[in-house]
Amino acid sequence: MPESISPTETETRPGCAVISLNGVTREYAGHAGIVCALDHASFSIVAGEWVAITGPSGSGKSTLVNLIGCLDRPTSGELRIDGVDVAAMSAAEMDRFRADKIGFIFQQFHLIPYLSALENVMLAQYFHSMTDEAEARAALARVGLAHRAEHLPSELSGGEQQRVCIARALINNPPILLADEPTGNLDAANQTIVAELLQDLHRNGHTIVMVTHDPEMAALAQRKIALSHGKVFCHPVLSQVVTLKR
Amino acid sequence: MTKAPHKPRLSFTGMLRRSLVHRRARSLSALVALTVSAAIATALLTLYADLNTKLHKEFRNFGANIVITASASTPLPPNALAEIQRTAGPDALIAPFAYAVASTDRGTSVVVAGTDFASVARLDSWWQLAHWPTAPNAALLGNRAANFVADEHNVKLTYSGKAITLIGAGRLTTGGDEDSRIYIPLATFTQWTGINPTVVEVQVPGGAVTVEAALTRLRTQFPSLQIQPVRQLVEGESRIVERTHALMYGSVLLIALTVAVSVLATLSASVLERRRDFALMKALGGSQTQLMSMFLLEALVIALAGVALGYIAGSAVAWGISQINFHTATLPRLSVLPLVLLLNIAIAALAALFPVRVLRTLQPAALLKGE
Fold first, then answer.
1. Are B18 and A114 in contact, with CB atoms under 8 Å apart?
2. Do B10 and A123 touch (CB under 8 A)?
3. Is the full-model pTM beyond 0.90?
């Protein structure tokens, strides 16, 4: 089981909106004209909340992840992450902000194939500030992979790779964890391990925004935000945190 | 699963090295292309640097490129040879000639030329003969002129009633007027005929510009003498040198473009293959500058390695070509290294344009989602 992990100070203030969208629209110029991928989305996510974003393919989930992950800017509307207006930032400021505030967990893990598990974790440190091997080893230990630190991704199972990905997301202690289908590529056993890790992170105060197709994973979240054709349907009531049963 | 531990330190250079080694086939492909370009550029530029010297040296073998003629009324001034040497330059080869029409012991008229064999041996090294005469009473017989005498080894000639007997020193073949002449040492000739040199052949090393400059100096110094260039030689040399230069430049350019296309394909494939890696780095906070630097540094490292290997290979090729064609060694020239370096960096930069555009328009979220 992972050790206790604490997010940054901002996230530890319950009730404070760490993510806030106000009429956020994202349009793309396509061959057939302007495509509205996200249409006047407005909602907030408070610090320490676990939110599941659901919706069919093409509903705007990736666009939303792009925006919350500070990888893109809204065409219109206001998006604030940790109180900062994303649209007002320069590209360099956004890179810096992303490294500070967002921890990404991907469906396909996206580990650099020629770097060991430890180095993949240190990669996030490298782009954030400076590498610290001891800290990176501790992060791997938290996800139960201390003994696999020196292995290349190709030498790890899918579940282990996802845990490395989680360790990498946590290494800079970001206030927001952005998980995009975190269990989409895992078998049932590894799905349970990852779900437990996320639950533990949530218990320790992390804000988790999780895109998922999986109703069981979505059920773990306190709140679901459903997307359809770029429009947002929020489930305003916080649900009880449940335990994944497989 | 026990594997040899990987070195855990993470640095920019470490990542670069790992990345190059991990994609060794692509890295090697780009390295080979850039090595070939550097090798060819080195070889051609090394040869190019020596080309003028070598071609001029080759052209020296064709003989004089300036002919100075004194008329019967205005003979060569005293000390003319030393003055001509001084005016034409210390590197110029000069040879004096005096001519007379004598009779052989068969009663055939023949042109006898008095000259300095040592000078002619250097100036007209292309003449075909067994050995250059050294004896003061030697006679070198032109291939046709040899038929005019009764005994090739005992050459009897008469000029204005004065007879002379010379020892035949072999035959001379040039395919020109020389084949119909008998050449004897100048001192012996002058003593026998009383005629001084009227023609001086001059070989000025260098291209057309150098020869023209020497011509102008000589004409200024000796206004009463007829001073003419051997146009075919001067202009022919100039044309050959210019065309060879153009050919070399063209070859380097063509090869550079070919290599650029090859490297472009390799680097593009490399970036397209690693779009997700770069997208990940961007998602982790990597700036556009960091990603560009990482990619461009990879291209630069390969280009520099290509220069190092290509310089060695190209110098060896230039040495071989020089040995085979000019029978002299061309040593490696450090002066070509900056040019080869610039060329390879330019190729790598040109080839990196498209991949850099791909990097600039990277959409991390879509790529990391697998779209």
1. yes
2. yes
3. no
